[in-house]
Amino acid sequence: xxxxVQALAVLRGELICLFSGAxxxxxxxAAFAIAVIRRRGGVRLLVWIGLWSAIFGLNQLFQSPAIAxxxxxxxxxxLDLGAVSASYLTIVAAALAFLELxxxxxxxLVQLLFVVDAAIAVxxxxxxxxxxxxxxxxxxxxxxxxxxxxxxxxxxxxxSLTRRYLVLSHSRVLTIxxxxxxxxxxxxxxxAPLKIHVPAILDSLGFAVxxxxxxxxxxxxxxTNERRLLSIDSELRIARQLQFSLLPQGAPRxxxxxxxxxxxxxxAVAGDFYEFLAIDEQRSGFLVVDVSGHxxxxxxxxxxxxxxxxxxxxxxxxxxEFLRRIGNTLSGNLxxxxxxxxxxxxxxxxxxxxxxxxxxxxxxxxxxxxGALVRIESNGLLFGVRQGCDYPVCELQLxxxxxxxxxxxxxxxxxxxxxxxxxxxKLEQVIRAQQSATPMELTRALVxxxxxxxxxxxxxxxxxxxxxxxxQ
Length: 472
Prior knowledge:
Elements: H1 3-38, H2 43-62, H3 65-70, H4 76-99, H5 104-131, H6 138-157, H7 159-165, H8 172-191, H9 200-246, E1 257-264, E2 272-278, E3 283-291, H10 295-311, H11 319-330, E4 339-347, E5 352-358, E6 363-367, E7 372-376, E8 379-380, E9 394-397, E10 403-407, H12 409-412, H13 423-433, H14 439-453, E11 464-471
Parallel strand pairs: 5-8
Antiparallel strand pairs: 1-11, 2-3, 3-4, 4-5, 5-9, 6-7, 6-10, 10-11
Helix pairs in contact: 1-2, 1-9, 2-4, 2-9, 4-5, 4-6, 5-6, 6-7, 6-8, 8-9, 9-10, 10-11
């Protein structure tokens, strides 16, 4: 072979190495970029794949004579250190990527492999820094790589193991990529003792096939999760519409009373619920309920309360019996959830109100006659504690200008940036400041104060419900 032919072969090999290294580094950067943009399920796998690809590419670039020749001589030791570090860390990144796909016993095995890989990498890099010997831990490092690859191949080869130990909706692409990579690696190692030259491009192609099969799995997981989340969002929108349809479509128009309500769910659906039980033009009940927790489970229980309240409205004039029957109806169906409730019955004709509650914040009564704000507590046990509870009743004489406020703890427990709760004191300030406002104006003012109280960057911390009733 002439000198020119040898030089061309070296140059061709250098170009392949440079192109391959740049390609894998760019692929790693692309994986990172997609992970940042999508930020959905499967992203962590994409991050580890990006790291794996970038380290592999940097290893090729660090070992390139062309790169070394292009940089100042003082950079040589850093390139050598980079090449040694990349050789060890490639397996660590691969273990992290593999770990994202595993379940059960296989996951524990891969976790062990990762710990051992990381220890070997630290030992190998530290030994190189101390002695200059780069190969002392290469064999253990390669053994860990083989162990991980064999574990993956066995799991992919047996469908029952794939279903049991891998988080995959489709395994065909990863199976093909893994076995092609294994075949190329096996062939390259088998012919090495025979002095048969294996083109460097084949190693890069084999790794690219494996890497992109992992990438396909990661993107499939992301897209699957996005489709699932879109489906959930659609279902939550429907659930929200259904839940709002269960609420009163407007306040009852009763001579002698002015009524307003506010309802602000923390999430798409809420565990708060309120109901008006207008019997006639002079008598009506007002129910406010707060289910422990948030979201769909709490919303389902709130809908159960709606059904329970509708089934026992024959005793709406008796708060104790009304709450007892609701509690008995719900008993056995709450599955560990607790429910608080407050019920106010008002008879404008006889100027009498009756109030009872189940572990609920107190009823607030504002008297315009003397400017007094009174908190009325008449609590029995929360629904879900035990069946057949008794609920004490407080009877009140209605006066012209009385204002009553029923609310859930989302009002008083809202916290600002300093962690201070809105509290009873702040609630009283708003009520006093809005004493001449209509019930609707008071609810709007109170919701505005609560929103201003919350940190600007924070979402609502709890469901919020309140009913304001004025006696005219």
